[in-house]
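Internal tracking record. Fields below are filled automatically when a chain is submitted to the structure queue. Please do not edit lines marked as system-generated. If the sequence contains nonstandard residues, flag them in the REMARKS field before resubmitting.
Queue: standard
Priority: normal
Entity type: single polypeptide chain
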Amino acid sequence: MAAILKSSNFKLLTRNSVIRYSYRTAYYVLLPEIPPDTPETNPVLRTGELLDYTPISAEKCLNAVAKLSLEQESGIWKLENQLTEPGSCVTFESIMDPLERLSAPLDAAWGVARTLYVTDSERMPSEIYKQIHKRARKSRSLKFQSKPIYEACKGLMNENQKLDQKQKRLLNKYILEGRLNGSELNESGLKYYIEVSRKLEEHKSKFQQKVEKATSRFSHVLTDPNSVRDFPSELLRATALDSSAPSRGPWKITLQPHIYSTFMEYCSDPLLRWNVWQANRARGSSSGDSALTTSLDLEEIRFQRRDQVKLLGYPSFAAMSMETKMAGSVGNVNKMIELLLEKAFPAQEKELATLENFARERGFEGSLNMWDVPYWRRKQVSSLCQHEEGDIREYFPLPRVFTGLLALIEEIFNIHFELINQHKNGTTAWHEDVSLYAVRHSDGKLIGHFYFDPFSRIGRKLLSREAASWMISTRSRSDMMNHTPVASVVMNFTPNLHGIPSLLSFQQVQTLLAKIGHALQHMLTESPYSEVAGLTNLEWDAVQISAQFFQLWSSDWTTMSKISGHFESGQPLARETLNQLNQAAVHMSGHDLCQQLYLSALDMELYSTKDFWLDVVKRLWPKFQRFPLEKTDAHPCNFTDIVSQDMAAAYYSHTWSKMVAADIYSAFQEVGMEDRTALRTVGERFRKIVLANGGTVPPSETFRQFRGRDPSPDALLNYAKLK
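SYSTEM-GENERATED OUTPUT FOLLOWS
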C-alpha cells in the first residue's frame, strides 16, 4: 500500500519540473510505492554485470525501472536543492557525477527491458513494455526540464573553467535540452509552452490512431490463383487465410508495409496494383471515411509546432530542428537536395523511359503509372541479373558470412572478438540460439560485449519476419558506474534446417553489415559519460552513418570474397556475379533518390512555411516527379514518420547519412581496397576519430578531422552511378 505523508509547506512537482506551486495549507500527498526489489533479489538491478537472462521476467524489469526511476527523481530534487542553496560551490563534478550515478543504472535496466521486448514477446508483453517505456522516459526527461540544473550548466560554461571536449559537450547537451524544454521562458510563457506541448501530443496521437485504423481497415481478398502465380513463398504465407496451405488460397492483401511493398512488386494485374496503391495513398484523405480524415490534424500539428518554437525564439520548427542535426541549417539541407537533384532528375527521366520500353516489349500497353513501376522494375532487374536469388543465397551461409565479417573488422580496425562460453560464465542469454562476444583492444583490454540473435522466432520476436532487424543499445558506457557498453544485434534469418545452415540473400548480408556497423558505433566509444557515449547525443542525421558505411563494403569484391563461400564447396562468390548484384543494387538509383529528395523537401517545407499542405505538395511535386499527381493522392495525410513520430524536419537524415557514409567509404577506396596494410591505417583513424568520439564531438568536426573538409555529394553520386 502506498505511503501517505502530511506536509504543511509542500512543493508540488508538476509533469514539467520547472513549475512548482507552494501551498501553505496542509494536505495529503499519495506517493508511489517503492518496489522492495534489491540487487540480490532482482538481477536487472545489477546493472554493472553481464546478466543471466534465465530468471528475468517482465515483472522484474518493471520493478527495476520503477525503483530506479524513483531514485533518479528524488536524487534530482536533492541536487536541485543543493544547487540553489546560497553560497553553494558548483563544479562540473558536483553536477554531473550525481546525474551519472542516477541515470546510467536506469538506462541500463531500461535497455534490458527493451532487449526482451524485441526478442521475446512472451516474456515481455507489449502492454508491460509500454508501461516501462513511459515510466523510464518520463523520469529520464526530468533532468533536462530542471531549471536549477540548466542554470548551473550555463554558469559553468560562462565561467570558462578548464574543461575538456567531453565535459563541454556534456554541458552543452544539458543547456540545449534545457532551452528546448523552455528553461529560458518566464512563468506565463512556460505555462503556455506546456499547454501547447500537451495539445501537440494529443493531435499527434489522434493522427497516428486514424492512420493505423485506415491502414488496418483496407483489405482485398484474392481467389484466383493466376493473381498470385508470381508471389514468392514469403508473401503467400503472409497473405494466405489458411497459413498451413499457403498455395491454396484465398489470399488477403492488406496495407501492412511488408505485404504492400512485396505485393506491388509481384502482382501482375495492373488493376489490382492500382486498387491497392490508391488505397495506400488515400489514407487520411477526404475521399474516405470522414472519421479517419487527417487533413485538419496535420494542419493543427504544424500550427502547434510553429507556436511551440516561436516561444523559444525560432522562426520555424525546421530551424529549431537543426539545433540537433549535423547539417546545421535548413539552407545546408536544401543545398544537399539541390545538388543531388541536379543529377538524379535527368537520370530518373532516362530510367523511366527505359523501363516503359522494357514493359512494352513484354506486352504492356499504354503509359507506365506510379503503381506499375515496382512490378516492371523487378522484372527489369531480373533480366539484368542472370542469377536466381536462391542460387545467390547458397554462397552466403550464415556461419561463413558472420565469421568472415568479424575477421574483416578485426583486420581493418585492429580489435578482437572473443566468443564467450555463456554457461561457464553464468551469462545465459534469452535464447539458446543467441551467442555472446567480448570485444577487446589488440592488447586484450575489454571494450564491451555484444549479443548476436540471428534467427526468426515466429510469434516471439517483434515484427518477426526476415526483413526486420535491430541493433539495441542494451547498456551504454559509464566509467563512473563501471559499465562497459553492451549491444544486441537481432536479426530474423531463416533457421538452420536439415543440416543446411541459414542461407542469406544479398540484401540480408547488407543488412547484417549495417547492424554490425551500428553496434560498433555504440561499443567503440571512449566517452566516460553515458549521456554522450556511442550513439547517445549523436546528431540525428549522423546516427545511421556508421551503419550505412559498413553496408557499402558489400560492393567490394575483396571483402565479399572473404565473407562468402558456397555452403557445400566453400567456393567464394564470383566477381562477375557480384558485379551484377552491384548493378542491381543501384538499378533506377536516380528514381529512388528523387523519391527520397521529394519526401525530404516536403518535410522541410511543411515545417518551414504556413502554406496549406496540398499547396506545398502541388508546388514541389513537378520538381521531383515525372508522373502527374493523382487527385486521390493524399500521402502527407498518412506520412506518420514526420507528422506523429520522430522524423519531423528530419526526414532528410536518411539521405544525409548515406552521403556522409559514402564520402567516408571513399577514403578507404582511395588507398586501394586490396592493400590491407593501408586499409588498416585508414581503419584505425576512422575508429579513433569517428567511432571513439561518438557523441562527445560534433560529427561535423569528426568528419573534418577524418577527411580534412566538409562532406561532398560526389561519392554518393559515384556509388549510385549518377556522377
